[in-house]
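Dear V.,

Thank you for sending over the compound details. I've combined the ligand you provided, NAP, with the protein sequence from our construct and run the structure prediction for the complex. I'm sharing the raw inputs here so there's no ambiguity about protonation or stereochemistry in the SMILES, which I know was a concern on your side last time.
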Amino acid sequence: MDTHAASNGPDAAVSVAVVFGASGGIGRALVEQLLSDGRYSRVITVARSSQPALHNDAVPAHADLTDETSIRAVAHQAAQLGTVRLVIVATGLLHDTSTTPEKSWQSLDGEAMARSFAINSIGPALVAKHFLPLLPRSGRSVFAALSARVGSIGDNRLGGWYSYRASKAALNMLLRTLSIELARRAPEALCVGLHPGTVDTALSQPFASRNQTGRLFTPEESSTHLLQVIERLQPGDSGRVFAWDGSVIPE
Ligand SMILES: NC(=O)c1ccc[n+]([C@@H]2O[C@H](COP(=O)([O-])OP(=O)(O)OC[C@H]3O[C@@H](n4cnc5c(N)ncnc54)[C@H](OP(=O)(O)O)[C@@H]3O)[C@@H](O)[C@H]2O)c1
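Below is the predicted structure of the protein with NAP bound, written out as structure tokens.
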């Protein structure tokens, strides 16, 4: 398939799925499942640094969400391979060496907030900027970004986690706005946010307890749920945020 694409340009019959955050807990599980179910001819696995060796049908690519040039280059690579029918942005930031979820307004720090917005809101928007134009004008296709239930304004009863909550709320608004523009160009294409549940990954590890009230999913369980939600999306669902069980998250 690669040879054909290289010699004659992109082959429209080749369906391409793209996963950003392929090195992450949920992203990696999504990639493995997409590769094993064979629904897409090729799966582009995008990570900002190293990523584990995968199946032969995986096409590794590199992009940092804070570097638009690198996102544009992956979009170009995808367009050469075939028709992009699925894009999942499974990147995200809750904590790192210089960012911790804030318990109080006293902890608010401009730089840490800007980092959260750069990765959780602006990065996925830039992926959309370069990938939504690649979705086919007719036929079903999906752009999905991993959001979080805590990004829901209506569902916020506990407070805290200011930057993460606000950056995911901004992501949800960006997805809704993108979905409106997308519908004019590609009426059957869908643009949604997804809440994966609480999942046992590096992101949740300091905060998720196995004794918590809700379930702690493995990345494999979560990715199975998320791909089912994507599969079951209906035409009117674009612009909404869905939880792992298919329920709509309040705005
Ligand atoms: N785990 C949960 O319980 C949970 C709950 C609700 C929502 N979510 C959401 O689900 C998504 C995936 O989370 P996860 O649990 O799989 O987290 P994770 O294991 O920490 O994975 C995060 C991914 O984001 C990538 N990333 C971070 N900054 C990046 C950048 N500047 N450019 C490119 N990639 C970048 C990481 O790449 P590196 O490997 O290079 O760092 C990694 O692949 C996130 O959006 C998160 O907010 C997770």
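A first observation: Residues 12 and 193 are 27 Å apart (CA to CA).

Warm regards,
I. M.
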